[in-house]
Amino acid sequence: MDLPVDEWKSYIFQKWSLLPKSIQDTISTADTLRDIFLHSSSLLQPEDEMFLRSLSRGYLVGKEPNAPPFYREEGNKKFQKKDYMGATVLYSKGISHARPHSADISLCYANRSAALFYLDEYEMCLKDITRAQMHGYPESLQPKVTLRKVECLVTLGRLQEAGQTIRDLESNFAAKPSLAAAQFQILQRNLCRLKMKVQERENLTASFPATLTKAFEDMDLREENEQIPGASSSVSLCMDPLKGRYLIATKDILPGELLVKEDAFVSVLNPGERPPLHHGLESKWDTRVTNGDLYCHRCLRHTLATVPCDGCSYAKYCSHECMQQAWDLYHNRECPLGGLLLTLGIFCHIALRSTLLARFEDASEVIRKLCVEMSNKDMCSPESENLVQTPSSDPGGESEINGKTVKTPVPGCDLNGKYENNYNAVFHLMPHTENHSPEYKFLCAVSVSALCRQLEAADSSKPATVPPAWRSELRAWGVAMLKHMLQLQCNAQAVTSIQRPGSKENSVTNSRQVRLATGIFPVVSLLNHSCSPNTSVSFISTVATIRASEKIGKGQEILHCYGPHRSRMAVAERRQKLRSQYFFDCGCPACQKEKHRAAVGPRWEAFCCDRCRAPLQGGDVLSCGSTSCTESVSRDHLISRLQDLQQQVGQARKLLTSGQLERAIQLLLGCRHDAESFLSAEHSMVGEMEDALAQAYAALGDWQKSATHLQKSLQVVEVQHGPSSVEMGHELFKLAQLFFNGFAIPEALNTIQRAEKVLMVHYGPCNDEIQELQKMKSCLLDSPPISLGPSV
Ligand SMILES: [Zn+2]
Ligand SMILES: [Zn+2]
Ligand SMILES: [Zn+2]
Ligand SMILES: [Zn+2]
């Protein structure tokens, strides 16, 4: 999804392989990005563009007139089955395809408001009712949605507004007496019921708002770094010819301390795994739920009530404000290019959006820099980027360094040595031009140049909306985009979120980390990698926060993990990945330590002896480590048994989701028994089985059994990821939920405390799970010890 779709990739690689050797050499040995771009661009033929367009057309990104009724119908089916979440998403899809101010769009909004109402999302429901009315909801259906509106207002305790709405409704009815009587009665009955509900709620008002405000205050950096806004004053920027830029601690740092808080310079929502739908297929419309249906395309917030762009169906937002901002900043240019951008991949999209955003900074400065770039022969080497040359024709003319060459201390910093989240910093991230393969550079250059031509074509159709500077400098922007594309392989930051699918009550939810978007964070980019990092990164909306995950001594380097973490990947695999993607040999302590004892794998991958349970050792043939035992077995045999188990556990998970709990448990217990004969008790596969068993028992309502199994899974997680890892935090959270649901009060309080402690270090106080833990805690502390059974 980062790179262009496979069809385009293999098409371009083929094209490359058919180029005469002399042309390949010219591009391979070109010493500037400008030359790479211009040579590759000149090879882009009309038939290539035609092929690319045919691929782009596979994505339905426009408004499809037949889609809204289809999705509304499908949504209604889900609604009838009481799957309100599913219905909401389908109505949203319908909305995204409907034209503004059409019956389609207003009906979809109204239906979505009903689904949201049943999901207890009253604020969102109210907004959708307003939207339905704004887009011309039929007069005859008005009483229905108005009634819903009153219900929402009353539930939210906004009684005055509710009263006003009722009076408006009454006077409306007075004008049309035929409707009145029956409607009034329903209204009155509902009103009575709802008023009682409000009174109950008023008695329950908790003190959460206060804790929330405090939480957001804690989200701020205690003391901001003067040189690097967005970083804490506990760190400092250093530069080393070998390591490049990096951050060190200027004082002792405690676990949980916030070190960086940075909003993405640019981010692009990952649309989700969605292969293009090909023409003439039976299934016309896609009913699958993707990231694009659930998260705002600009701010990445989760939302069930998206508002689509007026011009396309693929860009959806959390609010009208977000839509407008995105439109002004970049979407006005991106809107007609949806299919193309999906075909060319996220990196290309980020490259375009970065240059579009650059226009809002000092544009003349940016263009000047690009012109330097265009003429600079040595721009691939990082040293040359330190030089900021000020040509005498500088349109600003106020520069104090007129005509002189000034060397800034660290690339990406301004003349005062300040490093900020801006285009200048993004521009100076390393493209590693010399490390990428010639084919890859060709693919990027041709893709960018195809994008530029489509932009040009779009511009010439509406010249009035395009700033003249952009048009004349399009080629310079093309070079800049190529640079960004090459930078992204090493500098793209995945924006992740913890997703807890359909958190049904009374069951252990299986949270998983999902990749929401890809972005560029110039300050976060200053951190070097370690396979066993001393920080932890998390995201709220488009803001990244980095916290110390352990004690960091004064003078120590601040490190984060680029992906290959020691608890998730073996040393050889990790080092290979870091070399091929990030172009360096990892020298982190974990790698140093593990490099020399590669023969014995980690405990969570260990096989053990069937007879005496001692760990097995060796290469293709494994033998028992115990001296008194002579057992030996082939590795291939054990691997095939492991694969077999994996398959069965997968099957058990399917049974679990389809509600066949007893069968799932039987299968898992069988697997568990099987595993005992050849896997160590700390094998990650064993952990997975225990986790699945815990889920199954929780779904049956057997809290005790569920907790027993979850505690076993917890042990495996602890061995693999460490006692204060974020993975451990999520497991403890699940365990706390179990004890809470099972009214095991002392165990619940104890586990809540442990979970809170671990999660706080990684996420800080405004994390969802921490908020929930606090709610559980205050509920347990406030409620009388016996909450079961009717009181007499
Ligand atoms: Zn938003
Ligand atoms: Zn659009
Ligand atoms: Zn390493
Ligand atoms: Zn043995």
UniProtKB/TrEMBL annotation:
Role according to the record: Protein-lysine N-methyltransferase. Monomethylates PRMT5, modulating its transcriptional activity. May also act as a histone methyltransferase. Plays a critical role in cardiac development. Acts as a key epigenetic regulator of gene expression during cardiac development via its dual activities as a methyltransferase and negative regulator of HDAC1.
GO-annotated biological processes: heart development; methylation
Record-level Gene Ontology MF annotations: histone deacetylase binding; methyltransferase activity; zinc ion binding
Regions of compositional bias (Polar residues) in chain numbering: 383-393
Record field: transmembrane: none
Residues covered by the SET domain: 233-563
Protein name, UniProt field: Protein-lysine N-methyltransferase SMYD4
Matches recorded under CDD domains: SET_SMYD4
Keyword Cytoplasm on entry: yes
Signal peptide limits: none
Originating species: Neomonachus schauinslandi
Domain of life of the source: Eukaryota
GO cellular component, one term: nucleus
Database matches in InterPro entries: SET-MYND_domain_protein, SET_dom, SET_dom_sf, SMYD4_SET, TPR-like_helical_dom_sf, Znf_MYND
Stretches the record annotates as Disordered: 381-406
Location(s) in or outside the cell: Cytoplasm; Nucleus
Reaction it catalyzes: L-lysyl-[protein] + S-adenosyl-L-methionine = N(6)-methyl-L-lysyl-[protein] + S-adenosyl-L-homocysteine + H(+)
Keywords on record: Cytoplasm, Metal-binding, Methyltransferase, Nucleus, S-adenosyl-L-methionine, Transferase, Zinc, Zinc-finger
Record-linked SUPFAM superfamilies: HIT/MYND zinc finger-like, SET domain, TPR-like
Residue ranges occupied by any MYND-type domain in the UniProt entry: 296-335
